[in-house]
Amino acid sequence: MPNSPASREIVRRTLRFENPPRMARNLLPPWGTDFAWAPPQRPIDARPHARGRSRDEWGAVWESFGASSLGEVKEYPLADWAMRDTLAIPDVHDPSRYANFADLRRTHGDQYILVPVGSLYERAHFLRGLENVWADIREEPDRLGELIDLLADQACAIARRAAEADADGIILTDDWGLQDRLMIDPADWRSIWKPRYARVMSEAKKHGMDVFMHSCGHITAILDDLVEIGLDAIDMDQQQNMGLETLSRWRGRLTFLSPVDIQATMATGDTAAIRAYARQMVKALGGDRGGFIFKFYSDPAGAGHTPEAIEAMCGEFSAINREYAVQRGADAQW
Prior knowledge:
single chain, alpha/beta
């Protein structure tokens, strides 16, 4: 299934609920994608994937393991605030980081170019440690705020570079949820992180770009806030812990970029259940005028997804898309 010649416009119309002739997708070959994911050539938020221990650019020491070399931080370069003056802060303005941006539009043609700009929560706890960040909310809110401001400044700088390269959108990546609730008190999220996210989103909007955010876990407590400050699309790999009926409250206000729930239905390998859930999810979260983007989960090995499960999901998504297109009189052979 070749890439649609109208990919960029398809995604834009999906995000704006402007009745695209088909649904947008970010799937594997042969099912097709409308997206070009385009991080800077040297991302400041890069996380090592080599097995064993390795150090990232900030000085955090990672230990990677498992089927896909996923990892966690074992040594925190800012475990004590006394280490702040010696913290290695990557230079976000170094032109060599963006060497690949010189020909970004020419390289990706009419695809929708999405640029990752980093994280405001995960990088903070990669530097401080998760428990320290949680303690900082009460004990060192000013220092924590200064650190998040630094991360937001970097995200804004990357967003400006992305706009200069004719990118279409940015994506922030922060997992905020536990299985049944937000990791922190939503009031603390609103007082500390919300204004910093708002600043990054405002910078992107100022340059005519859309805003995506990836966040796993139970995050319904902050979805209204994210919509309020300018979020266009939520990259959501889990839905069943929150419930499709609950999430349908944001149908028509927020676009969902989602695979079949990676932790629940996809992990069972039951192809009939996967196909059925794909249709339930699209019906609950998408709309006749847009608001849903089909997604392939990028780490199937780490999540334990079988090739048969992946084929069932992508195949069903494509069947739904063809039905959608035919209903609108569009060409269903892309």
